[in-house]
User: What shape does this take?
Amino acid sequence: MKEFVQNYFSYTGAEIRQEGDVWIVDLDEELEKVFSQKQLRLVFDPQAVTEDTELVTHGSFVLNAMYAYMQSRGNKAVSRLKEKHKPNREDIAEAVRIENGLCSDIKIKKIHTADVLFNFKISFLSDEKTEEMYHLGIDRQGVVFDAQSYYTDAVMGQDLEPLTQLGGTDLTRKDIEIYFRECLKAASAKAQNHAKSLQNDILKRLHRNITRIKGYYTAQIEELHRNQLTYEEKRLAFEREYTHKLQEEIHKHQLKIVIKLINFHVIERSDYEVTVTLVNKQTREEQEIKMIYDPFTCHLDPGLCPSCQALMETIVVTTDNAIACKRCSYHCVRCRKRFGDLPHAYTCSVCGDYLCPDCVTICSGCRKPVCEKHSDLCDVGNEMNCTECLKVCTVCGKRLCQDHTFYCTATRQPICYEHRIICRHCRRIYSTAFVENIEKNGLICPNCNHSIK
Ligand SMILES: [Zn+2]
Ligand SMILES: [Zn+2]
Ligand SMILES: [Zn+2]
Ligand SMILES: [Zn+2]
Ligand SMILES: [Zn+2]
Ligand SMILES: [Zn+2]
Ligand SMILES: [Zn+2]
Assistant: This one.
Protein backbone atom coordinates (compact mmCIF):
# COMPACT_ATOMS: atom_id res chain seq x y z
CA MET A 1 0.00 0.00 0.00
CA LYS A 2 2.92 2.32 0.75
CA GLU A 3 4.01 1.72 -2.80
CA PHE A 4 0.61 2.57 -4.15
CA VAL A 5 0.42 5.79 -2.18
CA GLN A 6 3.90 6.73 -3.30
CA ASN A 7 3.10 5.93 -6.93
CA TYR A 8 -0.10 7.85 -6.71
CA PHE A 9 1.52 11.02 -5.45
CA SER A 10 4.37 10.75 -7.88
CA TYR A 11 1.82 10.41 -10.73
CA THR A 12 0.11 13.54 -9.55
CA GLY A 13 3.41 15.35 -9.16
CA ALA A 14 3.14 15.97 -5.42
CA GLU A 15 6.27 16.15 -3.28
CA ILE A 16 6.83 13.42 -0.69
CA ARG A 17 9.29 13.73 2.18
CA GLN A 18 9.85 11.17 4.84
CA GLU A 19 10.43 12.06 8.49
CA GLY A 20 10.88 8.89 10.47
CA ASP A 21 7.59 6.99 10.24
CA VAL A 22 5.73 9.99 8.81
CA TRP A 23 5.33 10.72 5.11
CA ILE A 24 4.78 14.38 4.43
CA VAL A 25 3.02 15.17 1.19
CA ASP A 26 2.84 18.75 -0.04
CA LEU A 27 -0.25 19.06 -2.19
CA ASP A 28 -0.79 21.28 -5.18
CA GLU A 29 -3.91 23.36 -5.61
CA GLU A 30 -5.93 20.67 -7.29
CA LEU A 31 -5.16 18.04 -4.68
CA GLU A 32 -5.68 20.56 -1.92
CA LYS A 33 -9.34 20.69 -2.95
CA VAL A 34 -9.63 16.91 -2.82
CA PHE A 35 -8.13 16.52 0.65
CA SER A 36 -9.18 19.95 2.01
CA GLN A 37 -5.71 20.57 3.37
CA LYS A 38 -2.38 21.87 2.08
CA GLN A 39 -0.29 19.09 3.50
CA LEU A 40 -0.87 15.43 4.36
CA ARG A 41 1.02 13.73 7.17
CA LEU A 42 0.62 10.01 6.59
CA VAL A 43 1.62 7.01 8.66
CA PHE A 44 1.21 3.36 7.79
CA ASP A 45 1.83 1.86 11.20
CA PRO A 46 -1.08 2.19 13.68
CA GLN A 47 1.42 2.53 16.51
CA ALA A 48 2.96 5.62 14.97
CA VAL A 49 -0.29 7.59 14.79
CA THR A 50 -0.23 10.98 16.49
CA GLU A 51 -2.74 13.81 16.67
CA ASP A 52 -1.63 15.46 13.46
CA THR A 53 -1.09 12.32 11.36
CA GLU A 54 -3.49 10.30 9.28
CA LEU A 55 -3.31 6.51 9.34
CA VAL A 56 -3.46 4.95 5.88
CA THR A 57 -5.30 1.64 5.95
CA HIS A 58 -7.76 0.00 3.62
CA GLY A 59 -10.84 2.13 3.77
CA SER A 60 -9.16 5.09 5.42
CA PHE A 61 -10.15 8.62 4.46
CA VAL A 62 -6.94 9.30 2.55
CA LEU A 63 -7.14 6.16 0.48
CA ASN A 64 -10.83 6.60 -0.26
CA ALA A 65 -10.26 10.21 -1.25
CA MET A 66 -7.48 9.09 -3.56
CA TYR A 67 -9.64 6.48 -5.24
CA ALA A 68 -12.59 8.81 -5.58
CA TYR A 69 -10.43 11.57 -7.01
CA MET A 70 -8.81 9.32 -9.58
CA GLN A 71 -12.08 7.83 -10.71
CA SER A 72 -13.68 11.22 -11.07
CA ARG A 73 -10.83 12.35 -13.30
CA GLY A 74 -10.66 8.99 -15.15
CA ASN A 75 -7.15 9.74 -14.14
CA LYS A 76 -4.65 9.69 -16.92
CA ALA A 77 -1.06 10.58 -16.41
CA VAL A 78 1.37 11.16 -19.24
CA SER A 79 5.10 10.97 -18.83
CA ARG A 80 8.20 10.50 -20.83
CA LEU A 81 10.83 7.91 -19.95
CA LYS A 82 14.35 9.31 -20.04
CA GLU A 83 16.82 7.78 -22.45
CA LYS A 84 19.84 6.53 -20.58
CA HIS A 85 21.91 4.92 -23.31
CA LYS A 86 22.53 5.42 -26.99
CA PRO A 87 23.12 2.34 -29.08
CA ASN A 88 26.32 2.04 -31.08
CA ARG A 89 27.23 -0.53 -33.70
CA GLU A 90 30.09 -2.11 -31.76
CA ASP A 91 27.98 -2.83 -28.69
CA ILE A 92 25.18 -4.22 -30.79
CA ALA A 93 27.50 -6.43 -32.84
CA GLU A 94 28.75 -7.79 -29.54
CA ALA A 95 25.28 -8.31 -28.11
CA VAL A 96 23.98 -10.26 -31.13
CA ARG A 97 24.44 -13.90 -30.36
CA ILE A 98 24.77 -15.87 -33.55
CA GLU A 99 26.13 -19.37 -33.78
CA ASN A 100 27.14 -19.81 -37.40
CA GLY A 101 27.22 -16.41 -39.01
CA LEU A 102 28.69 -12.93 -38.92
CA CYS A 103 27.14 -9.48 -38.56
CA SER A 104 28.03 -7.65 -41.74
CA ASP A 105 25.89 -4.55 -41.31
CA ILE A 106 23.89 -2.87 -38.56
CA LYS A 107 21.31 -0.15 -39.17
CA ILE A 108 19.88 1.74 -36.21
CA LYS A 109 16.65 3.72 -36.38
CA LYS A 110 15.01 5.55 -33.50
CA ILE A 111 11.30 4.92 -33.04
CA HIS A 112 8.82 6.72 -30.85
CA THR A 113 6.64 4.39 -28.92
CA ALA A 114 4.72 4.19 -25.69
CA ASP A 115 3.84 1.84 -22.88
CA VAL A 116 0.52 2.15 -21.10
CA LEU A 117 0.28 1.17 -17.45
CA PHE A 118 -3.05 0.34 -15.86
CA ASN A 119 -3.60 0.21 -12.14
CA PHE A 120 -6.53 -1.90 -11.06
CA LYS A 121 -8.07 -2.32 -7.68
CA ILE A 122 -9.43 -5.81 -7.21
CA SER A 123 -11.92 -6.50 -4.43
CA PHE A 124 -12.64 -10.04 -3.34
CA LEU A 125 -15.99 -10.04 -1.62
CA SER A 126 -17.50 -12.90 0.33
CA ASP A 127 -18.05 -13.20 4.09
CA GLU A 128 -14.71 -11.38 4.29
CA LYS A 129 -13.39 -8.62 2.06
CA THR A 130 -9.86 -8.29 0.73
CA GLU A 131 -8.37 -5.92 -1.79
CA GLU A 132 -5.36 -6.00 -4.05
CA MET A 133 -3.78 -3.60 -6.51
CA TYR A 134 -2.62 -4.99 -9.85
CA HIS A 135 -0.19 -2.98 -11.92
CA LEU A 136 -0.15 -4.11 -15.53
CA GLY A 137 1.63 -2.61 -18.49
CA ILE A 138 1.26 -3.15 -22.21
CA ASP A 139 3.64 -2.19 -24.99
CA ARG A 140 2.98 -1.13 -28.60
CA GLN A 141 3.26 -4.76 -29.70
CA GLY A 142 0.38 -5.59 -27.38
CA VAL A 143 2.51 -7.61 -24.97
CA VAL A 144 1.19 -7.40 -21.40
CA PHE A 145 3.82 -7.26 -18.66
CA ASP A 146 4.11 -6.81 -14.92
CA ALA A 147 4.43 -3.03 -14.76
CA GLN A 148 6.31 -2.95 -11.49
CA SER A 149 9.09 -5.20 -12.71
CA TYR A 150 10.06 -2.67 -15.38
CA TYR A 151 8.68 0.57 -14.04
CA THR A 152 9.93 0.03 -10.52
CA ASP A 153 9.37 2.58 -7.81
CA ALA A 154 12.84 3.93 -8.47
CA VAL A 155 12.12 4.36 -12.19
CA MET A 156 8.74 5.95 -11.51
CA GLY A 157 10.35 8.32 -9.04
CA GLN A 158 13.46 9.35 -10.92
CA ASP A 159 13.31 8.53 -14.59
CA LEU A 160 9.97 9.87 -15.71
CA GLU A 161 9.38 13.42 -16.80
CA PRO A 162 5.71 14.39 -16.47
CA LEU A 163 4.12 15.71 -19.67
CA THR A 164 1.00 17.82 -19.91
CA GLN A 165 -0.23 16.01 -23.01
CA LEU A 166 0.78 13.31 -25.46
CA GLY A 167 3.78 14.42 -27.46
CA GLY A 168 5.76 12.16 -29.72
CA THR A 169 3.47 9.18 -30.04
CA ASP A 170 0.64 8.35 -32.39
CA LEU A 171 -1.28 6.52 -29.69
CA THR A 172 -5.01 7.05 -30.21
CA ARG A 173 -7.94 6.78 -27.86
CA LYS A 174 -8.94 3.61 -29.67
CA ASP A 175 -5.47 2.08 -29.03
CA ILE A 176 -5.83 2.85 -25.35
CA GLU A 177 -9.24 1.22 -25.28
CA ILE A 178 -7.85 -1.92 -26.87
CA TYR A 179 -4.93 -1.95 -24.44
CA PHE A 180 -7.30 -1.45 -21.57
CA ARG A 181 -9.32 -4.48 -22.62
CA GLU A 182 -6.15 -6.59 -22.94
CA CYS A 183 -4.92 -5.58 -19.51
CA LEU A 184 -8.35 -6.07 -17.99
CA LYS A 185 -8.37 -9.60 -19.39
CA ALA A 186 -4.96 -10.24 -17.81
CA ALA A 187 -6.07 -8.69 -14.51
CA SER A 188 -9.18 -10.81 -14.43
CA ALA A 189 -7.20 -13.99 -15.15
CA LYS A 190 -4.85 -13.08 -12.32
CA ALA A 191 -7.79 -12.35 -10.02
CA GLN A 192 -9.45 -15.66 -10.89
CA ASN A 193 -6.26 -17.42 -9.92
CA HIS A 194 -6.09 -15.59 -6.65
CA ALA A 195 -9.77 -16.37 -6.04
CA LYS A 196 -8.99 -20.08 -6.31
CA SER A 197 -6.55 -19.74 -3.44
CA LEU A 198 -9.17 -17.91 -1.34
CA GLN A 199 -11.91 -20.38 -2.16
CA ASN A 200 -10.52 -23.10 0.05
CA ASP A 201 -10.63 -20.97 3.18
CA ILE A 202 -14.07 -19.63 2.32
CA LEU A 203 -15.42 -23.16 1.99
CA LYS A 204 -13.86 -24.10 5.32
CA ARG A 205 -15.59 -21.17 7.01
CA LEU A 206 -18.86 -22.02 5.28
CA HIS A 207 -18.59 -25.62 6.41
CA ARG A 208 -17.95 -24.53 9.98
CA ASN A 209 -20.99 -22.24 9.97
CA ILE A 210 -23.25 -24.87 8.44
CA THR A 211 -22.20 -27.39 11.07
CA ARG A 212 -22.97 -24.87 13.78
CA ILE A 213 -26.40 -24.01 12.34
CA LYS A 214 -27.28 -27.65 11.81
CA GLY A 215 -26.30 -28.44 15.42
CA TYR A 216 -28.44 -25.61 16.70
CA TYR A 217 -31.61 -26.62 14.84
CA THR A 218 -31.19 -30.33 15.56
CA ALA A 219 -31.04 -29.51 19.27
CA GLN A 220 -34.09 -27.23 19.00
CA ILE A 221 -36.14 -29.94 17.33
CA GLU A 222 -35.01 -32.59 19.82
CA GLU A 223 -36.15 -30.44 22.72
CA LEU A 224 -39.72 -30.32 21.43
CA HIS A 225 -42.18 -32.58 23.25
CA ARG A 226 -43.43 -35.18 20.84
CA ASN A 227 -46.77 -35.64 22.53
CA GLN A 228 -47.68 -31.96 22.35
CA LEU A 229 -50.40 -31.15 19.85
CA THR A 230 -48.34 -28.39 18.22
CA TYR A 231 -45.27 -30.64 17.81
CA GLU A 232 -45.51 -31.13 14.05
CA GLU A 233 -46.23 -27.46 13.40
CA LYS A 234 -43.25 -26.30 15.49
CA ARG A 235 -40.95 -28.86 13.94
CA LEU A 236 -41.86 -27.71 10.43
CA ALA A 237 -41.28 -24.09 11.41
CA PHE A 238 -37.78 -24.93 12.66
CA GLU A 239 -37.04 -26.84 9.49
CA ARG A 240 -38.13 -23.95 7.31
CA GLU A 241 -35.97 -21.57 9.30
CA TYR A 242 -33.04 -23.98 9.05
CA THR A 243 -33.31 -24.21 5.23
CA HIS A 244 -33.57 -20.45 5.01
CA LYS A 245 -30.49 -19.90 7.21
CA LEU A 246 -28.51 -22.41 5.14
CA GLN A 247 -29.31 -20.60 1.90
CA GLU A 248 -28.39 -17.31 3.47
CA GLU A 249 -25.05 -18.69 4.62
CA ILE A 250 -24.25 -20.17 1.20
CA HIS A 251 -25.16 -16.90 -0.46
CA LYS A 252 -22.94 -14.94 1.93
CA HIS A 253 -19.97 -17.16 1.16
CA GLN A 254 -20.20 -16.83 -2.61
CA LEU A 255 -17.06 -15.11 -3.83
CA LYS A 256 -17.50 -12.02 -5.98
CA ILE A 257 -14.65 -10.28 -7.73
CA VAL A 258 -14.90 -6.56 -8.46
CA ILE A 259 -12.28 -5.03 -10.72
CA LYS A 260 -11.95 -1.27 -10.92
CA LEU A 261 -9.61 0.75 -13.04
CA ILE A 262 -8.01 3.25 -10.74
CA ASN A 263 -5.91 5.08 -13.28
CA PHE A 264 -3.73 4.65 -16.28
CA HIS A 265 -0.46 6.12 -17.24
CA VAL A 266 0.85 6.61 -20.75
CA ILE A 267 4.61 6.56 -20.82
CA GLU A 268 6.19 7.82 -23.99
CA ARG A 269 9.56 6.39 -24.70
CA SER A 270 12.03 5.72 -27.44
CA ASP A 271 13.19 2.41 -28.73
CA TYR A 272 15.67 1.74 -31.46
CA GLU A 273 14.88 -0.57 -34.30
CA VAL A 274 18.09 -2.40 -35.09
CA THR A 275 18.39 -4.14 -38.46
CA VAL A 276 21.23 -6.61 -38.45
CA THR A 277 22.52 -8.18 -41.66
CA LEU A 278 23.82 -11.66 -41.00
CA VAL A 279 26.10 -13.55 -43.35
CA ASN A 280 25.89 -17.30 -43.42
CA LYS A 281 29.45 -18.57 -42.89
CA GLN A 282 28.96 -21.52 -45.27
CA THR A 283 26.90 -20.12 -48.11
CA ARG A 284 27.98 -16.43 -47.74
CA GLU A 285 24.33 -15.48 -48.31
CA GLU A 286 22.90 -12.52 -46.41
CA GLN A 287 19.84 -12.35 -44.17
CA GLU A 288 18.26 -9.44 -42.35
CA ILE A 289 16.87 -9.63 -38.86
CA LYS A 290 15.14 -6.88 -36.89
CA MET A 291 15.68 -6.39 -33.18
CA ILE A 292 14.70 -3.78 -30.62
CA TYR A 293 17.20 -1.91 -28.48
CA ASP A 294 15.91 -0.45 -25.24
CA PRO A 295 17.75 2.84 -24.55
CA PHE A 296 16.66 2.75 -20.93
CA THR A 297 17.99 -0.67 -19.93
CA CYS A 298 20.38 -0.98 -22.92
CA HIS A 299 18.94 -4.45 -23.50
CA LEU A 300 18.84 -5.79 -27.04
CA ASP A 301 15.71 -7.84 -27.67
CA PRO A 302 16.19 -10.21 -30.60
CA GLY A 303 12.44 -10.88 -30.72
CA LEU A 304 10.79 -14.19 -31.38
CA CYS A 305 12.31 -16.97 -33.42
CA PRO A 306 10.54 -16.98 -36.82
CA SER A 307 10.63 -20.74 -36.78
CA CYS A 308 9.47 -21.76 -33.30
CA GLN A 309 8.02 -18.43 -32.04
CA ALA A 310 9.87 -18.71 -28.73
CA LEU A 311 12.17 -15.98 -27.46
CA MET A 312 15.26 -16.08 -29.64
CA GLU A 313 18.41 -16.67 -27.66
CA THR A 314 21.14 -17.79 -29.99
CA ILE A 315 20.51 -17.14 -33.68
CA VAL A 316 21.25 -19.81 -36.25
CA VAL A 317 21.30 -19.31 -40.03
CA THR A 318 20.12 -22.46 -41.73
CA THR A 319 21.71 -23.92 -44.87
CA ASP A 320 18.73 -22.74 -46.90
CA ASN A 321 19.21 -19.20 -45.49
CA ALA A 322 16.35 -19.06 -43.05
CA ILE A 323 16.69 -17.79 -39.51
CA ALA A 324 16.02 -20.02 -36.56
CA CYS A 325 17.21 -20.29 -32.99
CA LYS A 326 19.61 -22.75 -31.52
CA ARG A 327 16.86 -24.63 -29.73
CA CYS A 328 14.75 -25.33 -32.80
CA SER A 329 17.49 -26.01 -35.35
CA TYR A 330 19.36 -29.22 -36.00
CA HIS A 331 22.23 -30.68 -38.02
CA CYS A 332 21.37 -33.63 -40.20
CA VAL A 333 23.84 -36.34 -39.18
CA ARG A 334 24.23 -37.51 -42.80
CA CYS A 335 24.39 -34.42 -45.06
CA ARG A 336 25.62 -32.08 -42.25
CA LYS A 337 23.18 -29.38 -43.39
CA ARG A 338 21.58 -27.11 -40.79
CA PHE A 339 17.78 -27.02 -40.65
CA GLY A 340 15.45 -24.78 -38.67
CA ASP A 341 12.46 -26.99 -38.02
CA LEU A 342 13.38 -29.42 -35.31
CA PRO A 343 9.78 -30.61 -34.77
CA HIS A 344 9.85 -31.99 -38.32
CA ALA A 345 13.24 -33.66 -38.02
CA TYR A 346 13.47 -37.44 -38.08
CA THR A 347 15.41 -39.18 -35.34
CA CYS A 348 17.12 -42.51 -35.78
CA SER A 349 15.20 -45.06 -33.73
CA VAL A 350 18.46 -46.71 -32.70
CA CYS A 351 20.87 -43.86 -31.85
CA GLY A 352 18.57 -40.80 -31.73
CA ASP A 353 20.59 -38.71 -34.22
CA TYR A 354 18.69 -36.11 -36.29
CA LEU A 355 18.03 -36.73 -39.97
CA CYS A 356 16.58 -34.49 -42.67
CA PRO A 357 13.78 -35.73 -44.92
CA ASP A 358 16.29 -36.33 -47.75
CA CYS A 359 18.59 -38.48 -45.66
CA VAL A 360 16.22 -40.54 -43.57
CA THR A 361 15.68 -44.23 -44.23
CA ILE A 362 12.51 -45.95 -43.16
CA CYS A 363 12.96 -49.52 -41.98
CA SER A 364 10.74 -51.82 -44.02
CA GLY A 365 10.17 -53.99 -40.96
CA CYS A 366 9.17 -51.63 -38.12
CA ARG A 367 8.52 -48.51 -40.30
CA LYS A 368 10.65 -46.38 -37.96
CA PRO A 369 13.17 -43.78 -39.22
CA VAL A 370 16.76 -44.88 -39.02
CA CYS A 371 20.21 -43.49 -39.88
CA GLU A 372 22.73 -44.85 -42.32
CA LYS A 373 24.89 -46.37 -39.60
CA HIS A 374 21.95 -48.24 -38.12
CA SER A 375 20.39 -49.61 -41.27
CA ASP A 376 21.36 -52.31 -43.76
CA LEU A 377 19.97 -54.34 -46.63
CA CYS A 378 18.53 -57.82 -46.27
CA ASP A 379 20.88 -60.25 -48.07
CA VAL A 380 17.95 -62.15 -49.51
CA GLY A 381 15.51 -59.56 -50.83
CA ASN A 382 17.45 -56.24 -50.52
CA GLU A 383 14.87 -54.61 -48.20
CA MET A 384 16.29 -51.72 -46.11
CA ASN A 385 16.04 -52.56 -42.42
CA CYS A 386 17.13 -51.11 -39.10
CA THR A 387 19.76 -53.00 -37.17
CA GLU A 388 17.12 -53.90 -34.56
CA CYS A 389 14.96 -55.67 -37.12
CA LEU A 390 17.74 -57.39 -39.07
CA LYS A 391 18.45 -60.95 -37.96
CA VAL A 392 21.52 -63.02 -38.86
CA CYS A 393 21.31 -66.63 -39.97
CA THR A 394 23.14 -68.64 -37.29
CA VAL A 395 24.39 -71.05 -39.93
CA CYS A 396 25.69 -68.86 -42.79
CA GLY A 397 25.73 -65.34 -41.30
CA LYS A 398 23.44 -63.73 -43.90
CA ARG A 399 21.52 -60.63 -42.76
CA LEU A 400 17.79 -61.16 -42.91
CA CYS A 401 14.69 -58.99 -42.84
CA GLN A 402 11.59 -60.11 -40.96
CA ASP A 403 10.04 -61.61 -44.10
CA HIS A 404 13.11 -63.70 -44.82
CA THR A 405 13.82 -64.91 -41.30
CA PHE A 406 12.79 -68.37 -40.08
CA TYR A 407 13.21 -69.66 -36.54
CA CYS A 408 14.29 -73.16 -35.55
CA THR A 409 11.43 -74.77 -33.55
CA ALA A 410 13.85 -76.40 -31.14
CA THR A 411 16.52 -73.72 -30.55
CA ARG A 412 14.56 -70.51 -31.51
CA GLN A 413 17.63 -69.38 -33.47
CA PRO A 414 17.11 -67.31 -36.66
CA ILE A 415 17.94 -69.03 -39.90
CA CYS A 416 17.70 -68.26 -43.60
CA TYR A 417 15.61 -69.98 -46.24
CA GLU A 418 18.51 -72.19 -47.30
CA HIS A 419 19.36 -73.41 -43.83
CA ARG A 420 15.99 -74.63 -42.72
CA ILE A 421 14.66 -78.19 -42.78
CA ILE A 422 10.92 -78.86 -42.63
CA CYS A 423 9.66 -81.95 -40.78
CA ARG A 424 8.10 -84.16 -43.40
CA HIS A 425 5.41 -85.16 -40.95
CA CYS A 426 4.34 -82.09 -38.90
CA ARG A 427 5.77 -79.27 -41.12
CA ARG A 428 7.73 -77.73 -38.23
CA ILE A 429 10.94 -75.88 -39.18
CA TYR A 430 14.37 -76.82 -37.86
CA SER A 431 17.80 -75.36 -38.55
CA THR A 432 20.26 -77.53 -40.42
CA ALA A 433 22.64 -77.19 -37.47
CA PHE A 434 20.05 -78.66 -35.11
CA VAL A 435 19.21 -81.50 -37.46
CA GLU A 436 22.93 -82.39 -37.84
CA ASN A 437 23.16 -82.52 -34.07
CA ILE A 438 20.34 -85.03 -33.66
CA GLU A 439 21.30 -87.15 -36.68
CA LYS A 440 23.08 -89.80 -34.56
CA ASN A 441 19.88 -90.24 -32.50
CA GLY A 442 17.86 -91.13 -35.59
CA LEU A 443 16.48 -87.69 -36.67
CA ILE A 444 13.41 -87.86 -34.47
CA CYS A 445 11.30 -84.65 -34.60
CA PRO A 446 10.95 -83.38 -31.01
CA ASN A 447 7.46 -82.15 -31.88
CA CYS A 448 5.79 -85.19 -33.49
CA ASN A 449 8.23 -88.00 -32.59
CA HIS A 450 8.41 -89.12 -36.20
CA SER A 451 11.46 -89.03 -38.40
CA ILE A 452 12.07 -85.48 -39.70
CA LYS A 453 13.26 -86.51 -43.18
ZN1 LIG B 1 13.40 -21.33 -32.72
ZN1 LIG C 1 20.38 -34.72 -44.53
ZN1 LIG D 1 21.42 -44.32 -35.89
ZN1 LIG E 1 13.23 -51.88 -38.01
ZN1 LIG F 1 14.55 -59.74 -46.90
ZN1 LIG G 1 21.78 -69.34 -43.85
ZN1 LIG H 1 7.59 -83.31 -36.94
